[in-house]
Write a structure and sequence with these properties.
The protein has about 290 residues and is an alpha/beta fold. It contains 8 helices and 11 strands.
Length: about 290
């Protein structure tokens, strides 16, 4: 029994949708869906109904794309936190583990670990020191970069995306502190990276303000992580920090992955017999092309 992971499916692209439709199952294993699967609730249902029967259980965390307010969302009065709760309800109807559910003990082999799906957002602090959110956005714009979230990710009822992020961080920090057994080993799963030094965007380095929050820089040690799983960057890699393994598990837009290799080759093993042992000291990234 393994814990597998894949994020950033972006099934709005026909190439990706076809690849996910053809993805073979592994009925004894769990699959993490690490956000940015799609933009609409209808597409999320399609992903869950397509992959759910193929795996023992799905684990879902939202990315920014799932939180975009589409025309149908606006017509239904769903935006910001309201849309998020709607997506959580759709997942729960299908037995999918979400960030709003109790953390669960991993039923597979090995020592006791707790599976912790998170929803933390970002607050523009993955930018030069001292920048306000407005300055971070202006800094990115100098390089011709403006994230679509600025138009499409509404923070309602919060005043801003950074205030929504602060709320999510506070709630999640309290839950991790209070709901896990003392000394628990965890698998932390969030769409956005938990550490700024893992954000490597060689072609668009100034996209970093939309990639996480400095408030989670020490969560891998604070909350006993064995593995930290994220997506968002479309830059697949295994990293180590303080003896903790970090897995970036994106598929990405069609230009970001090789159709010749096929989508199955991008599914990462998070827990299982093939996972990498900890190195003697932190090393550079192992890239997964």
């Amino acid at each position: 029994m393994r814990l597998l992971g894949l994020s950033d499916l972006h099934v709005g692209h026909a190439t990706n949708r076809d690849a996910i439709e053809a993805l073979p199952g592994s009925p004894e294993d769990w699959l993490i869906l690490g956000g940015d699967l799609c933009e609409s609730a209808e597409a999320l249902v399609w992903v869950l109904d397509t992959l759910g029967p193929r795996f023992a259980r799905l684990v879902w965390v939202p990315g920014n794309h799932e939180l975009w307010t589409t025309r149908s969302d606006r017509e239904a009065g769903r935006r910001g936190a309201t849309k998020y709760r709607h997506l959580v309800d759709l997942c729960r109807e299908r037995g999918v583990l979400t960030p709003e559910d109790p953390y669960v003990r991993w039923p597979g082999p090995g020592p006791e670990r707790w599976i912790c799906p998170l929803f933390l957002l970002y607050d523009y602090t993955f930018s030069p020191d001292g920048h306000t959110p407005e300055q971070a956005i202006a800094w990115a714009r100098e390089d011709g970069i403006v994230c679509a979230d600025e138009r499409l990710l509404e923070p309602h009822p919060f005043a801003s995306r950074q205030s929504w992020c602060a709320h999510r961080v506070a709630v999640t920090k309290r839950r991790l502190s209070e709901e896990l057994p003392a000394g628990a080993r965890t698998v932390l799963i969030n769409h956005w990276p938990l550490r700024r030094d893992l954000v490597r965007l060689f072609r668009i380095p100034r996209f970093s303000p939309w990639c996480g929050t400095r408030l989670t820089e020490d969560w891998h040690t604070r909350f006993g992580a064995e593995v930290v799983v994220s997506g968002h960057l479309h830059m697949r890699a295994t990293d180590w920090r303080d003896g903790v393994r970090f897995e970036e598990i994106s598929l990405g837009y069609p230009r970001h992955w090789s159709q010749d290799k096929g989508a199955p080759s991008y599914v990462r093993e998070v827990l299982g017999p093939s996972t990498l042992p900890a190195p003697a000291s932190d090393a550079g990234p192992i890239w997964h092309r």
